[in-house]
Amino acid sequence: SFTQYEKEKQKLCNEKYLHEKRIEEHKRANITKSAGLSIATGITPFLDRVINEINKLKKGIEPAEFKDRLVYISELVDKINDYNTALSYWVKIKQGSVSLHIENFELNPLFQILLKSQNPLKNKGLVLEVHETNSVVKADKALTLFMIHTLLDNAQKYTNEGGKIIISALETDKYVEISVADTGVGM
Asked: Of 46, 145, 151, 170, which sits most exposed with the smallest number of CB within 10 A?
């Protein structure tokens, strides 16, 4: 009967909806795992560089280079600390124990942090272009930095030497859209 057909159709639609939701949840879980792994493995090159710089200092270098080497080591340690902060945030997100600290803040200082920590990009032969912005957002500052950093790290991995990564913000009446664009292979 027609009623039986409608019931069967509704049942199939419900099953399709449930399968689509499961697929969506699996994709989200995969992205979360990838982000955590990316952060954890992202620290290793910085540790290697610190060890390399310390070994150079042990062997002896010209006094004029000494200060530059220390500044570079300091920058590397700052970058490692950024990764550790992001990783601890990721762990808290996974545990469900993140308490958001929502505040109004300017985006430009966050963009400048990313601009200052571009040595890994330069070492890979990439150009980082950060567009200044006067945008003020209402969000959790650490989580916002974490998300931008995760996108930047992903862009770095999939952009070939000589490529470019651009960080920008587009302000509308209702929201601010933060963009991390690259010349990489894309999804």
From this structure: 170
* Sheet of 127-130, strands arranged across: 127-130, 164-171, 176-182
> What pTM value is reported for the model?
0.53
Strand 102-106 to 136-140 pairing: antiparallel
CA 83 to CA 45: how far, in whole Å? Answer: 12
* Sign of torsion over alpha carbons 121, 35, 150, 23: positive
DSSP calls for 88-157:
HHHHHHHHT-----EEEEESHHHHHHHHHT-HHHHHTT-EEEE-----EEEEEHHHHHHHHHHHHHHHHH
CA distance 111 to 103: 17
Q: At what angle do helices 2-59 and 141-157 cross, to 10 degrees?
A: 80
Q: What is the pLDDT of residues 18-73, one digit of tens each?
A: 888 888 777 766 666 666 666 667 778 888 888 888 888 888 878 778 888 888 88
CB burial of residue 122 (10 Å; 0-12, 13-18, 19+): exposed
